[in-house]
Structures are given as structure tokens and as C-alpha cells.
Design a protein that fits this description.
7-stranded parallel beta sheet; Rossmann fold; alpha/beta; globular; 4 domains; about 750 residues
Length: about 750
């Protein structure tokens, strides 16, 4: 402890034993306690070195009379070397990964990708640690090799990552308990039990049902809720909840998760519920729904990149601590955070993994899993179900086909052996919940130019949502429509801009006498709760068409002349399709023909679509970065390389810049005036950034449209390139450009 005399420092042996005990407790539910205990006991053996002890004394200004060689002090190798010195061939490699990586992270075994940072060179000379190890007490050193086998049939690479999670979290927590007792006390304040939350939830849902208007949709929602409650009493399995948009999936899935977790609480029972959601906009919406339930106010932890730390209603200090290791009863997080953590190598991202064990994990909008990562993603979920007592639920209106396949022309060995559907008759439910007719703009799939499309939208005479495939098309189409009536949405707008714009959309939709036109990219699909009588959708994959249709007549309340009518979703072919859309759009176009159009949104069509899509992509494309190969073989794993490649969102094609919107300039000023608050301010500033494609970034910077903000590493976009309605616009489309920027000087 800095500034304290040695007698107030934590004895090293106490720390080793505390970490060993806590790590074993974390690993016990999945049968890894012996491994975790010994790795915890040996993880800091290197701190018995005279060099490390001298470093501690010197740092605190205490004379210790120890002579050592100058240079960097590495303490993480000795514990792994101790395993090698025991002659534990093979086993020593596991301990070396766990111990040598407990600060720097799990690394590759071989050197071919990362050179000397690999594990194999660090294991070559275990004798180099003998002088250090002899300083440790025999009660710490004299340990038997773990007798526990790895779980039969389990993926050893994931088992090692789970053990690593137990050790690094235990190390963090014991250090925190000694060094920062206030923080540790705050962390240890109890959350409500899942059984308490279930009581609150059931009371809330009973009241909702009493107060709900008697409509056909509310009747169906009540049926879905009842079926989820009944299914929750069944044994753990891989479950699916196939309910069309507007069928009450969010609360019904929570009903299943709570009841199932409480039902299976005995022994190593379910300890938490994790909601995995593809988009941050849906996360905020879903978490707010949960927090409105009485008794849930302090039980929900959001873990995603867009959460501003000054929002005390959402992120208390206690919740920030829980986001570090997911020890809360109800976690709402992104697909990016969940899956990238499962394949991570860094300590900060791995420490939460052991708290996924014994949980119910709901994958909302499961169809949004990126196809190029489908095999490793499904493999990880299958492993969690088989060996880590996780009950997964695939929750979506457009259920993808994720079963194990071994056909002669397509192999998906990582798929689930079986998936148990909760809804009794998904086909019948789709018919009963039909609120939309899907029509083609042109029967022959001939492309339509944007000016013609704009005229067709204006002639509708009602509020229209039009979803296009490209940001450029959204911007150009919005400019062709009446300015006072049109609202634009795309990721060229910063997150704060999009949030305020969506709020404006919802407010203006309440005014039925003054229709609006919203032109958007796909960001409004998959869970955004807006409701239009008419939706236009550029041709794309069937799952996206279905999600767009879910924003149409969502509540089934559309009427004409006092009679209920269907909403209208119009599919059109844009004149210029981006390359990534062509393959899914081609499959969808086959289903958008003839009589099939009448029942386009039936579950059977989703199955046809996904089977064809995955078959066309091929098994290799479903693991484009070869993650499975990097983590297979005889313990020659490439943990670091796999982590570097496993990126759901590839952002290396763009650069993030701060935009002059809202409070961005004010926050920037506070960064320099409030240095003690920089972490929180940077989190908030993240909501005021957009990504600029790299092929545009250089030319814009050269013309001074992008410049230093005054804070190191933070770049700022020029005011003339950020439009109040459209967000970022390129210079050739900007409405107010400084002509001096185009002057050529000798």
C-alpha cells in the first residue's frame, strides 16, 4: 500500500491463499475448482523474488538492504515454471497460460503470429525461476497435481478461458478488498434474489393483464406469456421463442427466464439472467422496460458502450462495478460484448466469463448473429449449454436455422442437437398476428430511381417509414421530400443525435392529422418501437424485410371507415444495390413471388431462407476468420490471435471523429478543465462521434475539415460538414461550405 509501512501491507501468502480459495469457489460449479485453486495459489510466486520485494520497498521509500540487478521485474513466470519443474507434462502448459497471462492476458502457444509474446518461449527455461521459488513457503509449493479431468467432451480452450476468468476475477477482488475497502463494501451490497424478482414480476404482469384493453393482440400476448411460464418448468434445453413482432416477446421471455431460474435454483442452480441484444438502441429500450417493474430498479445492469456515466438512473457506481464481472441478477448487454468476451484474451474482458455459468441467456433478435462468425458463436453457446449449466433461449420473429447439419454438400457441426420451441404453434400464431400485407413496388423487380420513389411516398398521404440499404441513399432521398415533413435517420448521425431524433419521431407519430415521412437505414429495424401505417423497404434479406414489416401496424390498430385493415409494406428494388446485400436479396426475391407473397412472413419461409443463405455462403464462410481452427488441436491454441480476429463489428475501415452536435463542445471543454473526471467525460463524448470511412478521412483532414480538437487523440469534424438533420455530409453535398477551403495557393 503506497505510503504505508510494511507491517500494514498484505502478506503475500495471505493473498495467494485468498485468491486460491475464491477462484476455486468460482470454478466449482463447472468442475474446475482444483485447477483454479492451484493456479490461484501459484499465480504470484514471482513476487517472492528479491527484485520484486526491493521494488516494493523502494516504491514506498523503505530501506530493505537487498542487492538486485537493475531492470524490469517480471513476476508472472515463476508459477508456470513451478508446474514445469514438477514434471507435469501437458498440465504445466495449462498452468503457464493461466499464471503467465494473469496480467498480460492469454497468449498464443506458438510464435508464428505474435513472436516472443507467445507462451512457448516463456516456458523454455523453468530452471530460471528456481532461485525465486525457493523463497516461497513449502506449504504453498508442496501441492499435488489436479486429479480433476477436463469435463468429458468439453472444448478445452473454453475450459481454460473459464479457469482464467476465475483466477483474474479472484485476483482483482482480493486486491480490491485489501486496497480499497470502500469499493469492496459497495460491491458486496446485496442484489435482490431472483426469487424476489419473480414475485415482483408476477404481480406486475397480473396488474398489466387486468388493465390491458381487450384486443386480439393482447389476447395473443397473454397466451404467449402463459406458454412461456409453462415451458419454464421443463428441464434445461436450448429453447426458441418464435413470436412475430409485437407479440410481447420481451416480457414473455423474462417470465420464462425468471421462472426457469428459480425452478432450477437447487444445487448449482441458475444465479442470473443475461439478455444479449444486437443493438445499443434496443438495449436502452429493453433495460428501461425492466426498470419500470417495481422491485427491479436496482437489479438491472446495462453493459454497453453508449451508457453515459452521469445518468444516475441507469449507471450507479455499484452498477459500474457489476459491469466489470457481471455479478448482478439481471444483465442487459450487447452481442458484441457477450461473444467477444467469450473469445477474449485480456483480463478485463475475461473476468466476467465465470458468471455466465449457471445462467439463463436470452439472445434477442437471434437472426442478427453475423454469418461470418456463426460457427464459433453457436459453438460457444452449445458449450455453455452442455458443460456450464446455461439455458439459452433464441428469441426472434425470424428464427434462423442453427441445428447441427452433416449433409454431403453442407456441414454445420457446431449446430445444436435440438432446439425446443416454446410456442405451441408458431405457424398459427403468425397467421393470427398478421397485421401487414407485403406488396412489390414492381412485379418484375425492375429498379426504381430515387425521384420516382419520393413521388410514390408523397402520394401515400399517410405517415411513411422508408428503409434503404445505404446511408447515401437515405440522405439523397430525404432531400427529395418536403423538409418540414421529413425526418432522416442513419449512422452518419451521432448516437445522441439519433436518440433525440427517434424521440421526435415517436412524438410526431402521435399527431395523426399531420403525417410524417421517416427515411432511415436499417438501424430502426429489430426492436425499435415505432409504428407506421405504411413502410417501404429496399430489397434485402427476408429477415430484414420481416423486421421492417414489424414497424408497420405494430399494434394492429389501423382502421379505415371503422373497420380494421392491414398495414402495407412495399418492397422495392433500388437502382444501385451494395454488394453485401445482393446474395440475401437474391434469395428473398425467390420467396417474393406468386402466391407465396400472401404468407411471406410465415415461419416456414424463414427456414427456407436461412437454409439457402447458409448453404450458399458455405461452411467456411460461416467461420471466415478461422476461429475454430485457431482454438483446436493438441493444446496449441492461439488465444491472442483468435481474440484479435473475433470482432463482430469491423471498425478498422473507418476513423471515429467528434461532431459539433448538442453538448459535444461543452464536454470537450470540460475534458481539460476537469482532469479528475476524464473517464466519465470520455464515455459521454463517445455518444457525439461518428465513423468516417478511411478513404474519405485523409482528403478531409488534408483540407482541414478534420482537425485536432485540443484533447490528445480526439479529432473534430468541421461544423460545415455536420447537418442538423442529416448528420455528417461529404463536402460536395454540404449546404454551407467555406470557399476558402478550395482555394489553391502556390
Amino acid at each position: 500500500m503506497e505510503g504505508e509501512p510494511p507491517e500494514k501491507w498484505q502478506p503475500l501468502e495471505d493473498h495467494l491463499r485468498n485468491v486460491a480459495e475464491l477462484a476455486a469457489e468460482f470454478a466449482q460449479p463447472f468442475g474446475g475448482e482444483e485447477w483454479a485453486c492451484l493456479a490461484g495459489l501459484w499465480h504470484d510466486l514471482g513476487k517472492y523474488s528479491e527484485a520484486f520485494q526491493k521494488k516494493l520497498y523502494d516504491a514506498n521509500g523503505v530501506e530493505c538492504h537487498i542487492e538486485t540487478q537493475p531492470g524490469r521485474v517480471v513476476h508472472s513466470a515463476a508459477g508456470g515454471h513451478q508446474a514445469s519443474l514438477q514434471g507435469w507434462k501437458g498440465v504445466d502448459r495449462v498452468f503457464s497460460w493461466l499464471i503467465m497471462g494473469h496480467h498480460a492476458g492469454l497468449t498464443d502457444f506458438h510464435t508464428d503470429h505474435i513472436g516472443s509474446k507467445a507462451l512457448e518461449p516463456k516456458m523454455r527455461e523453468p530452471a530460471s525461476s528456481k532461485e525465486i521459488i525457493k523463497n516461497a513457503p513449502s506449504s504453498v509449493l508442496d501441492q499435488a497435481k489436479p486429479r480433476q479431468p477436463f469435463p468429458p467432451g468439453a472444448d478445452p480452450a473454453l475450459f481454460i478461458r473459464m479457469l482464467f476468468s476465475c483466477i483474474v476475477d479472484a485476483d482483482f477482488l482480493d486486491t480490491e478488498a485489501f486496497m480499497n475497502k470502500g469499493k469492496a463494501t459497495l460491491r458486496n451490497k446485496g442484489y435482490p434474489e431472483l426469487s424476489e424478482l419473480l414475485i415482483h414480476f408476477d404481480a406486475y404482469m397480473d396488474q398489466l393483464c387486468v388493465e390491458a384493453e381487450t384486443t386480439s393482440i393482447n389476447t395473443i400476448r397473454a397466451e404467449v406469456l402463459s406458454q412461456c411460464r409453462m415451458a419454464a418448468d421443463k428441464e434445461p434445453a436450448v429453447y426458441s421463442l418464435s413470436v412475430p413482432t409485437g407479440g410481447g416477446k420481451t416480457l414473455a421471455s423474462l417470465a420464462f427466464a425468471l421462472r426457469h431460474a428459480v425452478k432450477h435454483k437447487a444445487g448449482h442452480g441458475k444465479s442470473r439472467i443475461i439478455y444479449v441484444i444486437p443493438y445499443t438502441s434496443i438495449i436502452e429500450q429493453t433495460a428501461d422496460v425492466f426498470r419500470k417493474i417495481p422491485g427491479f430498479e436496482n437489479a438491472v445492469v446495462e453493459h454497453h458502450s453508449n451508457l453515459a456515466e452521469t445518468d444516475e438512473d441507469k449507471e450507479t457506481v455499484r452498477n459500474r462495478l457489476s459491469a466489470e464481472n457481471w455479478d448482478a441478477p439481471l444483465i442487459v448487454t450487447t452481442s458484441v460484448q457477450f461473444f467477444e468476451s467469450l473469445y477474449a484474451c485480456r483480463t478485463s474482458r475475461c473476468r466476467k466469463l465465470h458468471n455466465i455459468v449457471n445462467s439463463v441467456v436470452i439472445f434477442d433478435e437471434a437472426q442478427c448473429l453475423p454469418p461470418e462468425y456463426l460457427r464459433p458463436s453457436v459453438h460457444a453457446v452449445r458449450e455453455l449449454f452442455r458443460h456450464y449449466q446455461v439455458t439459452p433461449m433464441l428469441c426472434t420473429a425470424t428464427q434462423p436455422v442453427l441445428n447441427r447439419t452433416e449433409s454431403f454438400d453442407f456441414k454445420f457441426r457446431e449446430g445444436f442437437e435440438s432446439v425446443t420451441e416454446i410456442v405451441e404453434n408458431p405457424d398459427d400464431l403468425a397467421v393470427r398476428l398478421k397485421r401487414v400485407e407485403v406488396v412489390l413496388y414492381r412485379d418484375n423487380f425492375q429498379p426504381v430511381e430515387l425521384p420516382e420513389l419520393a413521388e410514390a411516398i408523397k402520394k401515400e398521404g399517410r405517415s411513411v417509414l422508408c428503409i434503404v440499404n445505404r446511408k447515401e441513399d437515405a440522405r439523397r432521398l430525404a432531400r427529395l421530400l418536403p423538409k418540414e415533413q421529413t425526418i432522416h435517420l442513419s449512422t452518419n448521425m451521432c448516437a445522441e443525435h439519433r436518440t433525440s431524433t427517434l424521440a421526435k419521431v415517436r412524438e410526431r407519430l402521435e399527431d395523426k392529422k399531420n403525417p410524417i415521412i421517416v427515411i432511415s437505414t436499417s438501424l430502426v429495424e429489430a426492436g425499435v418501437d415505432i409504428d407506421f401505417p405504411v413502410v417501404y423497404r429496399a430489397l434485402t434479406g427476408l429477415d430484414s424485410i420481416a423486421q421492417a414489416a414489424g414497424r408497420c401496424n405494430r399494434e394492429g390498430g389501423l382502421e379505415e371507415h371503422g373497420q380494421k385493415v392491414l398495414g402495407k409494406t412495399v418492397v422495392f428494388v433500388p437502382a444501385d444495390q451494395p454488394g453485401y446485400v445482393r446474395q440475401p436479396a437474391g434469395i428473398a426475391s425467390e420467396l417474393l413471388q406468386g402466391k407465396n407473397l400472401e404468407n411471406l412472413l410465415a415461419p416456414a419461409n424463414y427456414e427456407k431462407y436461412f437454409r439457402q443463405r447458409f448453404w450458399q455462403l458455405g461452411a467456411e464462410s460461416l467461420d471466415e476468420k478461422q476461429i475454430m481452427a485457431l482454438l483446436s488441436g493438441r493444446m496449441n491454441y492461439y488465444f491472442r490471435t483468435a481474440a484479435q480476429r473475433f470482432r463482430f463489428i469491423e471498425d478498422d475501415w473507418q476513423e471515429s471523429v467528434l461532431v459539433p452536435y448538442g453538448k459535444a463542445i461543452e464536454l470537450l471543454g470540460r475534458l481539460t478543465s476537469e482532469p479528475w473526471n476524464q473517464y466519465a467525460l470520455l464515455r459521454q463524448i463517445g455518444r457525439y462521434t461518428v465513423g468516417i470511412p478511411r478513404d474519405m478521412f485523409g482528403p478531409l483532414a488534408a483540407r482541414d475539415y478534420i482537425r485536432e480538437s485540443g484533447y490528445p487523440g480526439l479529432l473534430m469534424l468541421d461544423l460545415v460538414l455536420y447537418d442538423d438533420d442529416l448528420g455528417f455530409v461529404p463536402p460536395d453535398e454540404a449546404t454551407a461550405i467555406d470557399p476558402g477551403k478550395f482555394m489553391v495557393t502556390d
